[in-house]
Design a protein that fits this description.
The strands form 4 sheets. Strands 4-5-9-8 form a 4-stranded antiparallel sheet, with helices on one face. Strands 3-6-7 form a 3-stranded mixed sheet. A two-stranded antiparallel ribbon has the order 1-2. Helix 4 packs across helix 8 and helix 8 packs parallel to helix 10. The protein is α+β, with helices and mostly antiparallel strands. It is elongated and about 80 Å long. Helix content is 50%, strand content 15%. It has 3 domains: 115 residues, Acyl-CoA dehydrogenase/oxidase, N-terminal domain (Butyryl-Coa Dehydrogenase, subunit A, domain 1, Orthogonal Bundle), CATH 1.10.540; 128 residues, Beta Barrel (Butyryl-CoA Dehydrogenase, subunit A, domain 2), CATH 2.40.110; 144 residues, Butyryl-CoA Dehydrogenase, subunit A, domain 3 (Up-down Bundle). Pathway: Amino-acid metabolism; lysine degradation; Amino-acid metabolism; tryptophan metabolism. It catalyses: glutaryl-CoA + oxidized [electron-transfer flavoprotein] + 2 H(+) = (2E)-butenoyl-CoA + reduced [electron-transfer flavoprotein] + CO2. Belongs to the acyl-CoA dehydrogenase family.
Length: 416
């Protein structure tokens, strides 16, 4: 690695770089320089020590990558492709750092931006964009992962306040967050009463008395009854934080509820934003692993010649470069569709399924080129592969995205 910013990769067999605008390349290069300067020199220690580097959070805010695809309230308002390129470069450094940016921007900030009130947006979005506050997104539960409709966390109205009880699991950043977006089931009766109270009128009769729907709440993590415990030890995403969260009689004001989009459509819209970032981020991890293998193969001498001179090694390098190039094309296509307002949910599933699956295979193959040295933290491929075990699982497993695509192709719902 040189001190100069690398503008293209040897894995770019099809000159995808040439299809980027000058603004997109400038943004990509600026984030790449940040990753080279602030992530790469330290990531082996952070990973080994299971340390999330909180000190870089304000720097990421200054870099403009927190909620960068959102408009207003101090958010950068960049394009989908620019956001994707930023995710790609950050994950080339480490999935844990890209995951922080996704949780903060694609999940927490998107939830507030899409579903929050003007007051909620004004209170939280500028601080989150600057990295002055950290957020977490509480959807997954110990017994409700791929099936969030089975969540058991509930919120009820009591004396003009919401009382939330339940448990969440695998909640990124919860132990260091300032605010949590908590998704809970709410009865239509309570939701109608809350809406009426905030509007200053009488409660409307719910369409279906006794029905429950999922709603989001903004819960400051200092609220009594909120407890977050990091999940340890982990073999993956060690430079990130994932937690168990307990909500025991957590009381928040009536206006803590996100007023828009009741139902699972609320969190699902945020998950699609995070899945989009993974489409790009996984390409970054794969590209970094390929480049590590290519560089090592050119320097490592066995049987009197560089390892790269052997046919079997060249086959591995070619196959990896082809897969990274295809993944890059897929990410760019999805990004252009998103910017054009033509992106559909099944397309995000196609990108997430393909690129996460591709990336983990590239990283595993790259490790074989490094031989035994590849199992150390001196080299990135196995660290990336370990992280990608989580990336491949969260925001929808391979199985979930396969069934989404199967439903699109056949018109038949096969989840149940």
């Amino acid at each position: 690695m040189t001190d100069a910013v690398r503008t293209s990769s040897p894995a770019d067999l099809l000159d995808v770089d040439g299809d980027l605008t000058s603004d997109e390349r400038d943004l990509r290069d600026r984030v790449r320089e940040f990753a080279d300067r602030r992530i790469r020199p330290h990531i082996a220690r952070w990973f080994a020590d299971a340390e999330f580097p909180r000190e870089i959070v304000p720097e990421l805010g200054e870099l403009g990558v927190l909620g960068m695809h959102l408009d207003g309230y101090g958010c950068p308002g960049r394009s989908a492709v620019e956001y994707g390129l930023a995710c790609q470069e950050l994950e080339a450094g480490d999935s844990g750092i890209r995951t922080f940016v996704s949780v903060q921007g694609s999940l927490v900030m998107s939830a507030i931006h899409k579903h929050g009130s003007a007051a909620q947006k004004e209170e939280w979005l500028p601080r989150l964009a600057r990295g002055e506050a950290i957020g977490c997104f509480g959807l997954t539960e110990p017994d409700a992962g791929s099936d969030p409709a089975s969540m058991t966390t509930r919120a009820r109205l009591d004396g003009g306040e919401w009382v939330i009880d339940g448990a969440k699991r695998w909640i990124g950043l919860a132990s260091v967050a300032d605010v949590a977006v908590i998704w809970a089931k709410v009865s239509d009766d309570d939701a109608a009463a809350s809406s009426a109270a905030r509007a200053g009128g009488a409660a409307d009769s719910p369409a279906r008395p006794g029905r429950e729907r999922v709603r989001g709440f903004l819960v400051p993590t200092s609220t009594p009854g909120f407890a977050a415990t990091p999940i340890e030890p982990k073999l993956s995403m060690r430079a990130s934080i994932q937690c168990d969260v307990v909500l025991d009689g957590v009381r928040v004001p009536d206006d803590a509820i996100l007023p828009e989009h009741p139902g699972l459509a609320g969190p699902f819209a945020c998950l699609d934003e995070a899945r989009y970032g993974i489409v790009w981020g996984s390409v970054g991890a794969a590209r970094d692993a390929f480049e590590a293998a290519l560089g090592y193969a050119g320097e490592r001498v066995q049987f009197g010649v560089p390892v790269a001179s052997h046919q079997l090694t060249q086959e591995k390098l070619v196959n990896m470069a082809l897969e990274v190039s295809k993944g890059q094309l897929l990410a760019l296509r999805i990004g252009r569709l998103k910017d054009a307002g033509r992106l559909e949910a099944h397309m995000i599933s196609a990108g997430k399924l393909n690129n996460a699956r591709m990336a983990i295979e590239v990283c595993r193959t790259a490790r074989t080129v490094l031989g035994g040295n590849g199992i150390t933290l001196d080299h990135s491929p196995l660290r990336h592969a370990n992280n990608l075990e989580s990336v491949r699982t969260y925001e929808g497993t391979d199985e979930v995205h396969t069934l989404i695509l199967g439903r699109h192709l056949t018109g038949i719902q096969a989840f149940r």
